[in-house]
Amino acid sequence: MKQTITVIRGDGIGPSIVDATLKILDKVNAGLEYRFVDAGLVAMERHGELLPATTVDAIAQHGVTLKGPLTTPVGEGFTSINVALRKKFSLYANLRPVKSFAGTQARYEDIDILTVRENTEGMYSGLGQELSDDGETAKATSIITRTGARNILEFAFETARREGRKKVTAVHKANILKSTSGLFLKTAREIAKAYPDIEFNEMIVDNTCMQLVMNPHQFDVIVTTNLFGDIISDLCAGLVGGLGMAPGANIGKDCAIFEAVHGSAPDIAGQNIANPTSVILAAIQMLNYLNKPEQAARILHALTDVIASGDRVTRDLGGNGSTTDFTQAVLERL
Asked: For the Isopropylmalate dehydrogenase-like domain, which residue ranges apply (predicted)?
């Protein structure tokens, strides 16, 4: 019996890289059927709203969603639809793994880091944003709860244990942000005591960024709050070749959304040159979540071989292949 998942093709390059990924999922007989819904600028054009009720209903009904990139304006306009989805479905855990692939132009080799980011609280959640009438003063509110901190920290340690990882680093700014970061760090120390089999250490966020550049191999699992996690996970992506090589999973108790973490790249939309790897890796995360490890492993093996060989890879990977060429190379190996 096939399982239906929700698919949001997204904006810009989203449709092309999502469609490429669906062909790959079909090739490995993943046992999936797709319900396509809209969000973002496409939804605004078709339905007059950024996040239609039909989309929300489909996500809730099917529980698992594969999503392409959505446009978020910088500095003005509507707020992030991604943030809205995380809040709506209480997707409290954001998993951003990065792993080195032979054949990329990355600066490092043998990187394998998992960033576990709290996804609904903190400064990045968008709470309490105000601009004074005269436009001279802006405010935003950061809220950390013990329950939210405990949930993400337990998730990080449980994930580390399940995946056979050895070390969890809690990243904070408790030396300055003594209330919010302080509560997160205190909770991390408490939770760590229940996992004596996993090494625990703590690191201030600015030092973490420096250490990631100088010696990234010291990190295994990083767990942190929302804004810090957003920044650190992008930094980690830079270690392995950029956001095109990094997937993201948003996990809640009853719902999960798997996505490309890069932007919609409207400047290259429709040119058939985008690298679909981020969405393909997100689909691999999704298959593992759905307890389909065999299909996930097959796709990862084929993708790894294509990138290592340089066969029809896209220009960001040093080649001249199109999105279609790249996808075909993966399909042939499957």
From this structure: 4-330
